[in-house]
Amino acid sequence: MSDHGSRVNFQHGQEFLAAISERWNYQILREVFFGVGRFGELKRALGISANILTARLNSLTELGLLTKRAYRSDKPWYEYALTDSARELVVPAIAAVTRWAETHATDTDVTHHPLMHTTCGNPTNPYLACSSCHQPVEASTLRPTAAEEGGAGRRGGSAPAAPGD
């Protein structure tokens, strides 16, 4: 998976899920999304050993989920950011998991992570919406359909229209 127009197939979804299911990878991606991008900052924020963090960062970079950039010329120190293709999936996933965890947490010492919509500049609580009627999609209002029934679900079928199309 890379940002260079590679063709995505079903196995890429499986690779992504396997990657973020690994013990530290989701936490690393979450921290990078929330602005913790330097190696030392990640190590402190996560309480992870340097050798494991190095291996996970290399793996996430090889998968095309992170980019790394040297920020010192005198030492090989790097700062990490989500790639554009990673942001398409990781950001909504992290926002959804974070919101779910904050809503369902049983302890009172929950850190809330406010989000801002950069297009309008307002605070936001993002949600999944239907591309046809634009109403919120909730578990109770969503069901899978057979490929013949839904049209867009067929292999080789067209993608659903984006809002406003």
SSE order and pairing:
Blueprint: H1 10-21, H2 25-33, H3 39-46, H4 50-62, E1 66-70, E2 78-82, H5 84-104, E3 115-117, E4 122-124, H6 147-150
Antiparallel strand pairs: 1-2, 3-4
* Biggest sheet overview: 2 strands, antiparallel
Question: What is the average of the pLDDT values?
Answer: 81
How many helix segments?
Answer: 6
Measured by DSSP, the beta-strand proportion falls in 5-15%
Shape: globular
Poorly predicted segments: 1-5, 153-165
What would you call the structural class? mainly alpha
Order of helices and strands: HHHHEEHEEH
Write a short abstract of this structure.
By secondary structure, this protein is mainly alpha-helical. 41% of the residues lie in helices and 10% in strands.
What would your notes on this structure say?
The protein has 165 residues and is mainly alpha-helical. 41% of the residues lie in helices and 10% in strands. The protein is built from six helices and four strands, in the order H-H-H-H-E-E-H-E-E-H. The chain has a two-stranded antiparallel ribbon with strand order 1-2. Strands 3-4 form a two-stranded antiparallel ribbon. Strand 1 and strand 2 form a beta hairpin. The longest helix has 21 residues.
Question: How would you describe this structure in keywords?
Answer:
single chain, about 160 residues, mainly alpha, two-stranded antiparallel ribbon, 6 helices, 4 strands, about 40% helix, disordered N terminus, disordered C terminus
